[in-house]
Specification:
The protein has 168 residues and is α/β, with parallel strands linked by helices. The chain has 2 domains: 110 residues, 3-Layer(aba) Sandwich (Rossmann fold); 38 residues, no CATH class. The longest helix has 12 residues. It starts with a strand and ends in a 17-residue tail after the last strand. One of its GO terms (cellular component) is chloroplast.
């Protein structure tokens, strides 16, 4: 399991702020409120980066690889994984795996042997337009409309469950 976790989110609604600056990927300071958390990576560190196929995830993987830090990137699709593998090159100390961040088994497997986690998966599913049309037509004819269907967009991931609820 991870000993340290650094949460980086691109959403402004979370109001995360950068409270320190670093010159290497071996030091990171990210905080939601005071005091700042200092996370130093040692020679035995292994970092899991979720959302590794996204814009920020790619940058983090690249920076960690440049610093020679053992890293594992978690991708939603094989296509995204192959794209990043090509970008990083064969010499990078990066293990690239495909998995679903909403699956406890996938996350547990991805975290195996990791000492740190950088969570960069943050997206919402998009509704499938055809399922919406089906629901509206059924509603019009007073039939049981069922539920809309959703799909995950490339480089996206599920939102966290509401407080007090477990993922389905």
């Amino acid at each position: 399991t991870a000993k340290e976790a650094v949460v980086v989110q691109e959403k402004e609604e979370e109001e995360l702020r950068w409270v320190g600056e670093t010159t290497t990927a071996k030091e990171a300071v990210v905080a939601q409120e005071e005091p700042a958390v200092d996370v130093s990576l040692g020679p035995d560190s292994r970092v899991l980066v979720t959302g590794a196929g996204g814009r920020t995830g790619q940058l983090v993987l690249k920076k960690l690889a440049e610093q020679g830090i053992s890293t594992r990137g978690l991708f939603r699709t094989e296509k995204s994984k192959k794209k990043i593998a090509k970008m990083l090159g064969a010499d990078a100390r990066v293990d690239l795996v495909v998995g679903d961040v909403s699956s406890a088994e996938d996350v547990k497997a991805a975290m195996e042997g990791c000492t740190h986690v950088v969570l960069l998966s943050s997206a919402k599913p998009q509704i499938k337009k055809r399922s919406l049309v089906r629901i509206l037509v059924k509603k019009l004819f007073r039939m049981d409309p069922g539920r809309p269907s959703f799909r995950w967009i490339e480089n996206g991931s599920p939102p966290p469950p509401p407080p007090g609820q477990t993922p389905q």
